[in-house]
Amino acid sequence: MRGWLLGGALASLLFWAQGALAGTVLVVGDSISAALGVETSQGWVALLERRLVDQGLTHRVVNASISGDTSAGGLARLPTLLATHRPELVIIELGGNDGLRGQPPQQLQQNLAAMIDSSHSSGAQVVLLGMQLPPNYGPRYNQAFSRVYATLAEEKQVPLVPFFLDGVGGVPGMMQADGIHPTAKAQPKMLDNLWPTLEPLL
Known about the structure:
Blueprint lengths: L1 H20 L2 E6 L1 H4 L9 H11 L5 E4 L7 H15 L3 E5 L2 H5 L4 H17 L3 E5 L9 H18 L3 E2 L25 H12 L4
Parallel strand pairs: 1-2, 1-3, 3-4, 4-5
Helix pairs in contact: 3-8, 4-6, 6-7
GO molecular function: phosphatidylcholine lysophospholipase activity
Protein name: Arylesterase
């Protein structure tokens, strides 16, 4: 009996130690990650939480995404988020609204670079989710916009998902009527786009 109790106590301690070692995953994004237009429980971040559980991982996921947010907004919010949640990993999904507003790609790059640097300084790893713009913004601007993510991934040595909406953007049934926001059907595909990059970091 005594041995059984000791074994149970050790197992409990091991369980809690494993839980304590698992870190927080912080998602800082815009409406794409805030699941605008679909049930929050159907969004890719909620699906990520469920996949972590299914994989036996005990990471906590904090979704700090705000619809309409820009890279400047994310940069302004990040210090408080880092101090509050002390994440092990930060997923940055921003830039789409910068592009849709025609803001200079150089400014986007500076803001995202500062977010990466702040995250690294706090001890967190970073995953950067790349975005692309609709073709009507013109090839010159679109190329400069897309290049921001690849440049940052190389300069800052961070994992990059080149186009988070790959297989979603412009695909019938995957986008809502506005042509900007993914449908519920698209959310698993978005998570699948991220997972191969994210899984090795967990």
